[in-house]
Specification:
The protein contains six helices and 16 strands. By secondary structure, the chain is α/β, with parallel strands linked by helices. It has one domain: Metallo-dependent phosphatases (Purple Acid Phosphatase, chain A, domain 2). Strands 3-2-1-12-13-16 form a six-stranded mixed sheet. The longest helix has 15 residues. It is globular.
């Protein structure tokens, strides 16, 4: 059995993966009685990596997501970054997004500033709150991180993918200040060392530290986009869920990229009940050639390229 399959099955069974270095386990904060059906505590729609500036059908893909959310009426919706640059020709994307009448949240992606735009220009164009921020809803505390900072004295010339000292300090203070269970959103993977956040290990320690101090699994789920993959990792009782791109997949090829567009847009609907049971309902599609999986070569061997977001159920 491959490692990713083991992790997914362990999570579905409600187990926690304990890494050899930690030597501790935390029980979920809330448990349900056998056979008891619990009400949903929170429901939200989530999509990632529209890449309006790189595709031709961004408006129709986003509209399909918003149309379904308007029918489902979740407590909020969130997009996980690589949404659109703040160009006037992308105004249609923001207008479609804003047709959802409920609360709407944004995560900044690395491509949202392509062309030299600033964080401030992106936030203003989207009508977004801040680069990183938090909010409470229905008994949960939600944290949105900005993974696009450049580390001090960093000589890496590619896209910035750091969460710097000031933001990490803010994160620690924000976690300490809440008594609620926490859900985290970040564009880049905090669990994925392949093009994920540089300080991923540091951030995982911050999350685990908050859980130790709280005496229960305070930080429960961390959602990411960016990698255009479909997977779940579980480290020390914290579930790290990758949300696949609503639009396409890619792979490196001789210094460039090959692209495979999904025939249908992908997104997920997440519900967490009163006992802390998470149900993620994804969507399935195929690539333009009719296949469900794309050979993306050895670079991303552990995270296959697939045209779906998996349905998942796990206890937090």
């Amino acid at each position: 059995m491959k490692r990713r399959d083991f992790l997914a099955q362990a999570a579905i069974a409600g187990a926690s993966l304990i890494s050899p270095r930690s030597g501790y386990s935390l029980e979920p904060h809330r448990k349900s009685s056998a056979g008891q059906k619990n009400k949903a505590a929170i429901r939200f729609g989530i999509c990632a990596d529209l890449h309006q500036d790189l595709i031709s059908d961004g408006p129709s893909r986003l509209k399909a997501f918003i149309d379904e959310m308007n029918q489902m009426k979740p407590d909020f919706i969130i997009q996980m970054g690589d949404f659109c640059t703040p160009k006037e020709q992308n105004r249609e994307i923001v207008d479609i997004w804003n047709t959802f009448p409920g609360p709407k949240y944004h995560v900044i992606g690395n491509h949202d500033r392509d062309g030299g735009f600033t964080f401030e220009q992106v936030l203003s164009f989207w009508g977004a709150t801040a680069e990183h921020y938090s909010f409470d809803r229905n008994g949960y505390h939600f944290i949105v991180l900005n993974g696009n900072e450049r580390a001090p004295k960093e000589d890496y010339k590619g896209y910035a993918k750091s969460i710097g000292p000031e933001q990490r300090r803010w994160l620690k203070e924000d976690l300490a200040a809440t008594k609620l269970p926490v859900i985290v959103f970040c564009h880049q993977g905090i669990d994925n060392d392949m093009d994920g956040i540089h300080e991923g290990n540091h951030l995982r320690i911050i999350f685990e530290d908050a859980n130790r101090k709280a005496g229960f699994t305070k930080v429960r789920v961390v959602f990411s986009g960016h990698h255009h993959r479909d997977y779940l990792n579980v480290y020390n009782a914290i579930h790290y869920v990758q949300i696949n791109s609503i639009s396409y997949q890619f792979k490196h090829n001789n210094g460039g990229f090959d692209f495979a567009h999904c025939k249908d847009p992908l997104w997920a609907f997440v519900s967490i009940d009163e006992a802390g049971d998470v149900k993620l309902k994804g969507r399935r599609s195929v690539y333009e050639n009719g296949s469900e999986e794309w050979d993306n070569g050895p670079e991303f061997d552990e995270y296959p390229t697939v045209a779906h977001i998996s349905d998942r159920s796990f206890r937090v």
